[in-house]
Design goal:
The chain has helices spanning 10-20, 23-43, 54-66, 75-84, 91-95, 100-111, 118-125, 136-147, 157-163, 168-185, 192-201. The protein is mostly helical. It has a domain at 10-152: Hypothetical protein af1432. It starts with 9 loop residues before the first helix and ends with a helix. The relative contact order is 0.13. The model has no long low-confidence stretch (mean pLDDT 97). The protein binds fe (ii) ion (2 copies). Residues 67-68, 71, 101, 127-128 line the site of one fe (ii) ion.
Amino acid sequence: MDVLSEKYTEEEILKKLRKKLDERRYIHSIGVAHTAVSLMMAHGHAQVAEDKGLNEICLAYTAGLLHDCAKCLEDEERDRLCEKYHVELTQMEKDHSFLIHAKLGAVLAKEKYGVTDPQILSAIRYHTTGYPNMTLLEACVFAADFIEPNRKMLDCLPEIRTVIYRDLPKAIYLILKQTLVHLEHRNQPVDENSLKAIEFYKQFA
Ligand SMILES: [Fe+2]
Ligand SMILES: [Fe+2]
């Protein structure tokens, strides 16, 4: 499938990712890419688009592949790259460093993988927290990250995987709700974007 990079082919991107991610994360990334594509096929505009939906499929594939490109960095390397590219972090991100990979990932997708499409970069940027009224691409990547086939099985997954192909906003609500319950259970604070997102998606419950 085509990746929307100005510098690299699909093969080159896969090779680079394989070097930067551990085996589990690499397999997850491929799973997210294909799942994001399938969600885009279900909810996209192929029937009315001039290109029969090809571009939106490539957008979903590229964003899915690269969404976790900053996930497996050593702490030092991560901090160095944040400084180099002037990635501004909120207190929440500083306190919970796993959140950083989304923001930094959007920067690295551009700087290291030659992806300049702002829609893709935004989908990477918000894939962990979500935010209110996401674009279709952002929603597909956010949801694919949660439901892709290699994910650890959760009680809520079968329902979400069924609902998601006919009612994406409702599935997003269910995912956000599950994430909130999970964080509260572990006594972890919830990112402001997720709180705003669940407030918004509540209307589709
Ligand atoms: Fe992630
Ligand atoms: Fe992920």
